[in-house]
Amino acid sequence: MAGATRRVGAETSATRAVIIEATNQLIRDEGYASVSTRRVAARAGLKPSLVHYYFPTTDDLLVEVSRQGAAQSDRMIEEALASEDPLRALWDFFIDTSRVAMALEFMALANHRPAVREYMAQHSEEMRARQVEILKRLLGDRLSRLEGFDAAGLSVVLAGIGRAIVMEHGLGVTTGHAEAIRIVEGWLDKLAP
Questions:
Q1: What is the enclosing helix (H) or strand (E) of 164?
Q2: Which InterPro entries match (predicted)?
Q3: Of 7, 23, 32, 52, which one's alpha carbon is 20 to 30 angstroms from that of 39?
């Protein structure tokens, strides 16, 4: 049957969730390069054909793992922005080192897997647009207190400094971190209502 669409397992399946969690564990424990259908199946206690039933290609699986990680980050950002002090909560999210290992793995993975890179870039653009919109709403005219900043620039600077601190922390590098955090805290003080 040429051209027939291959059946893929249900997104709500418990087996699918086990496959995704096994993939997360492999990436966390051994790095993204350890992910193969056979390795995921062994970790999940399944046959490799079952992994292919739910994810026809390794890229399909890796994009889904990335998508779920991004959705978790989105929820955390939304919680931060809904808090009593959304700007500081957003900053706390950006410098949270609890997700450093997975973040580094997915950045490296994106360099080698175009499908993952495409998904991550699209999601990042969408998230940045939401952050800019929310920062404009939250800060309004107060943003002019930081000379030369606008909402998009502030979003990139907060995320960029936070990302640098998180990535370097994962390497054991801390030089300049306290100073950078102090600079950002000063900006946040200037933006307070």
A1: helix 151-171
A2: Homeodomain-like_sf, HTH-type_TetR-like_transc_reg, HTH_TetR
A3: 7
Of 38, 36, 41, residue with least CA distance to 18: 41
CA 27 centroid distance within chain:
14
Tell me the per-residue pLDDT of 139-183, one tens digit each, with 9 for 90 and over: 999 999 999 999 999 999 999 999 899 888 888 999 999 999 999
Q: Are 66 and 106 in contact (CB under 8 A)?
A: yes
Instruction: Tell me: pLDDT of 8 over 90.
Output: no
DSSP state letter for 176? T
Could you tell me the two tokens for 154? 């502030």
pLDDT tens digits, one per residue of 86-112: 899 989 988 888 877 788 888 899 999
Q: For residue 2, is pLDDT > 70?
A: no
Q: What is the CA radius of gyration of the chain?
A: 20
pLDDT score at 9 = 64
- What is the Cα–Cα distance from 158 to 181, expressed in whole angstroms? 10
Q: Please, which residues have CB within 8 angstroms of residue 81's CB and are 6 or more apart in sequence?
A: 89, 90, 134, 138
User: Does pLDDT of 52 surpass 80?
Assistant: yes
- Give the number of residues written for the chain: 193
Task: Give one DSSP letter per residue of 48-73, joined into a string.
Answer: HHHHHHH-SSHHHHHHHHHHHHHHHH
State the Cα–Cα distance between residues 58 and 71, nearest whole angstrom: 20
For the entire predicted model, the pTM comes to 0.80
